[in-house]
Write a structure and sequence with these properties.
The protein is an alpha+beta fold. Helices cover 26% and strands 31% of the residues. A hairpin with a 5-residue loop joins strand 10 and strand 11.
């Protein structure tokens, strides 16, 4: 059953519009720090509802709790509720990007990508990564930390076969994360792949395209509360199917 306590924000829940006058003193600059765009950002604020969250609300299984929250986000009509931020490291810097969750079970959270992209190279060196689901209209977020490993070729094949043909061609055409000369170059590559597979009933999966399963060792559920006294419940893995549950200060 969907969580009946969940409702998306409406216009009445947003903070009042703040008007600031700013004068342009030069290309790309503004005069007056108190009336420029920085002050507008600083003034943006929304007071959260008093829904509350306890460990008992989530239950002992964080994967089941995540599924319930994801279903609530989908039921509330959020745009791409399976969109998540994936953060990886290369030893000296952290990089983040939005990708789509394509599967979740007790084994972990699955997404697909070009393994020769920046995140693919970084995961090959250091499989530690973090996921973030920012469900702002529900005043919720889920933070996940874990390690990524490639899914099996059979699993990747099955998912790739389910993708729209245009997306399949794009997987062949795009040298993801590489510098390119311009949009015409990408269009040319895409057309080349479309022509190459024009008579093919099935577009095969590119060898550099696969999926990653992130096995979590930490999952945090965050619920906004008034006065920035948010609820944070964190699950820490202590065994293959055992979790310790704690409350964190906001």
């Amino acid at each position: 059953m969907p969580d009946q306590s969940i409702r998306p924000w409406h216009t009445g829940h947003a903070s009042p519009r703040v008007r600031h006058a700013c004068s342009r003193s030069g290309a790309g600059t503004f005069s007056g720090m108190t009336t420029g765009p920085t002050s507008l950002i600083a003034s943006l604020r929304v007071e959260y509802a008093d829904r509350g969250l306890t460990a008992e609300d989530l239950g002992p299984d964080p994967t089941a709790a995540f599924a319930k929250w994801h279903d609530a986000a989908a039921t509330a009509g959020l745009h791409e509720p399976n969109a998540m931020v994936v953060s990886t490291v290369d030893g000296s810097a952290v990089s983040s990007r939005m990708v789509l969750l394509k599967g979740v079970d007790q084994r972990g959270f699955v997404f697909y990508t070009n393994t020769e992209s920046r995140k693919g190279h970084e995961l090959a060196v250091n499989p530690a990564c973090a996921l973030l689901f920012p469900w702002h209209p529900l005043e919720r977020q889920v933070r996940i930390e874990g390690t990524a490993a490639l899914v099996s070729a059979e699993e990747a094949d099955r998912y790739f076969a389910s993708r729209p043909r245009g997306s399949q061609l794009g997987a062949w055409a795009s040298p993801q994360s590489e510098v390119v000369s311009g949009r015409p170059y990408l269009a040319e590559r895409y057309q080349h792949e479309a022509d190459r597979f024009t008579d093919a009933e099935v577009v095969p999966r590119p060898p550099q395209w696969s999926g990653y399963r992130v096995r979590p060792h930490r999952i945090e559920f965050w619920q906004g509360r008034p006065g920035r006294m948010h609820d944070r419940i964190v699950f820490e893995r202590v065994g293959d199917e055992t979790w310790a549950v704690e409350r964190l200060a906001p």
